[in-house]
Design a protein that fits this description.
heterotrimer, A alpha/beta (about 300), B mainly alpha (about 170), C mainly alpha (about 325), A: alpha/beta, Rossmann fold, 2 domains, four-stranded antiparallel sheet, 10 helices, 14 strands, C: mainly alpha, three-stranded antiparallel sheet, about 65% helix
Chain lengths: ~300, ~170, ~325
């Protein structure tokens, strides 16, 4: 089952297309990371998936075919928007009651346990809590709904390192316990590797990369070798991004798999998620999408500089 | 390899009484993550289990950390832990009991002492050759690490052969 | 691909049933407790004022009740002047002030509900809950709407009691309940105008998305509507009557009157009119009065209450429709 499935999705604000021809299928049971530069369309995609916005073109379905924003979709998806919106003048206890009243399913016991563990006072107004506590409260409310899909828009932006760790620990524990799927957008690339097993790279309103992290990492590697041969390699292999000095070059290439032979005289190194994402961000023309119909041969921007 | 029913917490688990970080986990070991090592997370977990077995922290019958607990304390993807446990299962070191957790099944097979001695001798000989060729310590480590990685990549994990081999070995 | 094989909870395949209304009303109550308390306090003070002042007015009225204009004793004149000048002025001012209350109540209650939701971003929380957008919004509008309308109805009763001595219809009665401002404050009109103010506020809130501009716009729109009704609309609910007798019941609504001279033309000079009124018989001069008879009071109340109610419902429906369509 796909928790989010879009086909040719497009969203236009005024005369600008925030998303264009966006097709992606995020499988269930994963933690999917949505990465990309500011303004690339991440928030727009998430808003469309949770029913806060309507598509201008194409369609978005969630939880195995339910239209986004339908009652079944709203029931099964919990969303924590950027800056964790809460009713600032209500105490945490009231926020719990309120959320419980607005949903069919709400685990009060779980919510109170979590808030006690986190040390969030129930009687204090939400607006008086620290940024980290507000984020944790918003997350607790979302998780207590026992959703099938949790959607987080830049959840870690205002959190200190410890709060970030605890926040993600809570999300992932819920994913482990209930089989909940997670889609989160993030800038913090370094942490994605530990957390995400599905990656979607959005750039300029389009999908640039989409796939399981393991598979993406298996199908990419960095070849290090003589700069003079770089051009020749680029003709045979699909180079995503090249970095060249006078004598030495590093080529981030797409391969068929780990068994692919390494060109003689070259060294192969595995690639990290961070390196992969940065390389693709630097090469807007390149793409790595699932399915034979979608693999595009990287356009000849490869050997740059 | 499912964890217990969602939401069911044993009455004495949970950090309610203050000094119980140790009492919380039902497993003798706890995982830690080395983010700087460059080794994939799931492999780190596998190695930590194997290391714990070697050193005696884990004995057959002990429970490995619950997926949920490992995930909550390390903030890593649950599938990573599952992958590590599956790897351990494939190696025959652990077994999953549905509804209860993952448990240690066997100890690491010991390589016989004479064989170890032979291996050590051939290794020292090779080191002598490398040294004569002009490689310094870092150079030796780099070469060895790269060759090691290539070797296991092509060979596949123990218990599974590479793609060229259609036979399947190991624990069913 | 490795997937978690936790026991899958039984999931319903059909659309989930709607969330109960009572819980949604609780949501509405919880959020606006504070402002509701503030409004209640304010209205309480106002009611107290009307009560106290009303009792004093009745006292003054009782003092005058026994006398009649035709045979004023000294005591009567004094009492009468007190009643007619001082207290009437107070009462008139109170009436004018009271007219602002539904506007403010409606606007302050209606506009912020959705405007603040949109402005502060909490709609990204509220509209992604299982209950959806329509029902919670309806509940959040319904509770204040009903409370305000009920409070307004109570207030118009209180005002009726307060102003009764001046409506009493005796020879020295000063005011007609049918007159534009008093008509708006009595019967069911007051409640209807309050509800309309709320509905305009709510729609302004969802259209303008910011609380203060929405309040200002709603206030302007409501005032415009009231003005249009007082000046143009109301007099045409039924065709007004014309009389040349110059005698209309004190409780009727005199829309306009003028004099015509022997030549049939309108008398425009004020001096002439004064001369006619002060002097004796005036052959050839006729006073024309266009008016609505007192008997039509309740009929007009129902008409006005009716179309205001319809308008309010329409505006609230439009508000809900906008909420459904509003995209992030």
């Amino acid at each position: 089952m796909n928790v989010i499935e879009t086909s040719g999705l497009g969203k236009r604000y005024g005369s600008t297309w925030a998303l264009r021809n966006f097709t992606v299928a995020v499988p269930a049971g994963h933690v999917a990371a949505l990465v990309g530069p500011n303004g690339a369309g991440k928030t727009t995609l998430l808003n469309l998936a949770v029913g806060l916005a309507r598509p201008t073109a194409g369609a978005v379905n969630v939880l195995g075919g339910e239209p986004a924003g339908s009652p079944a979709a709203l029931d099964g998806i919990a969303f924590v928007a950027q800056d964790a919106p809460l009713y600032k003048n209500l105490p945490a206890a009231d926020m719990l009651q309120l959320t419980g009243n607005l949903n069919r399913r709400f685990d009060h016991g779980y919510a109170q346990e979590r808030l006690a563990e986190l040390g969030i006072p129930l009687k204090r107004r939400a607006g008086k809590l620290s940024g980290g506590q507000q984020a944790q409260l918003a997350l607790t409310l979302a998780l207590a709904r026992r959703p099938r899909l949790l959607v987080l828009d830049e959840p870690l932006a205002n959190l200190d390192p410890l709060a970030r760790h605890d926040f993600m620990g809570m999300v992932l524990a819920a994913a482990a316990e209930d089989g909940m799927s997670v889609v989160l957008s993030s800038h913090v690339l370094a942490e994605l590797e530990r957390v995400a097993d599905y990656l979607i790279l959005v750039s300029g309103g389009r999908v640039q990369v989409a796939g399981e992290v393991d598979e993406l990492l298996a199908r990419h590697r960095v070849l290090t070798g003589p700069a003079a041969e770089a051009g020749r390699i680029a003709q045979r292999l699909s180079v995503v991004h090249a970095r060249r000095a006078e004598a030495q070059a590093h080529l981030l290439v797409r391969t068929g798999g780990p068994g692919d032979p390494v060109p003689p005289g070259w060294e192969a190194h595995p690639v990290s998620v961070e390196e992969l994402v940065l390389a693709y961000l630097r090469e807007p023309g390149a793409a790595a999408l699932p399915g034979p119909a979608r693999t595009q041969k990287a356009e000849p921007t490869e050997v740059s500089r | 390899m499912a964890d217990g029913p969602a939401g069911a917490t044993p009455p004495d688990a949970g950090g309610g009484d203050g000094d119980t970080p140790l009492a919380r986990s039902a497993s003798p070991i706890e995982f830690r993550l080395d983010t700087a090592s460059g080794v994939p997370t799931y492999l780190q977990l596998v190695h930590q289990v194997e290391h714990a077995l070697r050193l005696g922290y884990l004995k057959p019958g002990d429970q490995l950390p619950k997926v949920r607990d490992a995930v909550a304390s390390l903030a890593i993807n649950p599938n990573t832990v599952l992958k590590a446990y599956k790897e351990l299962e494939t190696k025959g070191l652990a077994v999953g009991r549905p509804g209860q957790g993952t448990f240690v099944q066997a100890t690491l097979s010991q390589v016989a002492l004479p064989e170890l001695a032979t291996l050590r001798r051939s290794l020292l000989a090779w080191l002598g050759t490398a040294d004569a060729a002009g490689l310094d310590e870092d150079g030796i480590v780099a070469l060895f690490t790269s060759a090691l990685r290539d070797f296991f990549e092509r060979r596949g994990a123990p218990g599974r052969r590479g793609t060229s081999d259609s036979q399947k070995e190991g624990v069913a | 691909m490795i997937t978690l094989n936790t026991p899958a909870p039984a999931r319903r395949d059909t659309t989930p049933p709607p969330v109960p209304w009572r819980r949604l009303t609780w949501v509405s109550w919880r959020q606006y407790r504070m402002s509701a308390a503030g409004a209640a306090a304010f209205l309480g003070v106002l009611a107290l004022y009307l009560l106290i002042m009303g009792l004093r007015i009745r006292g003054a009225y009782a003092a005058v009740a026994d006398c009649s204009l035709s045979a004023p004793g000294k005591r009567c004149v004094g009492a009468f002047l007190l009643f007619d000048n001082d207290y009437f002025l107070i009462a008139e001012t109170s009436a004018a002030v009271l007219l602002a209350v539904p506007a403010l109540a409606g606007v302050f209650a209606g506009a912020p509900i959705l405007a603040r939701e949109l402005d502060s971003g909490t709609f990204r929380f509220a509209w992604t809950q299982g209950a959806g957008r329509t029902r919670p919004t309806l509940a959040r509008l319904a509770l204040p709407a009903l409370t305000l309308t009920a409070a307004a109805a109570a207030f118009s009763q209180l005002f009726g009691w307060f102003f009764y001595p001046f409506f009493a219809g005796r020879e020295f009665a000063q005011a007609s309940a049918f007159a534009p401002i008093y008509f708006t404050l009595t019967g069911i009109a007051f409640a209807a105008w309050t509800l309309t103010a709320f509905a305009i506020g709510a729609l302004a809130g969802v259209l303008i998305r910011r609380a203060v501009p929405a309040m200002a716009a709603a206030l302007a729109a409501w005032s415009g509507l009231l003005l249009a009704t007082l000046l143009f609309l109301r007099r045409h609910y039924e065709a007004p009557l014309t009389t040349r007798t110059g005698q209309t019941s004190p409780s009727s609504w005199v829309i306009s009157n003028w004099w015509t001279g022997p030549n049939g033309h309108r008398v425009t000079s004020e001096n002439q009119i004064i001369a006619i009124l002060n002097g004796g018989p005036h052959p050839g001069y006729t006073q024309w009065t266009i008016y609505q008879p007192a008997t039509r009071y309740w009929h007009f109340q129902l008409i006005e209450g009716g179309w205001l109610l319809a308008l309010s419902l329409l505006l609230i429906a439009a508000t809900i429709w906008m909420v459904r369509r509003r995209a992030a």
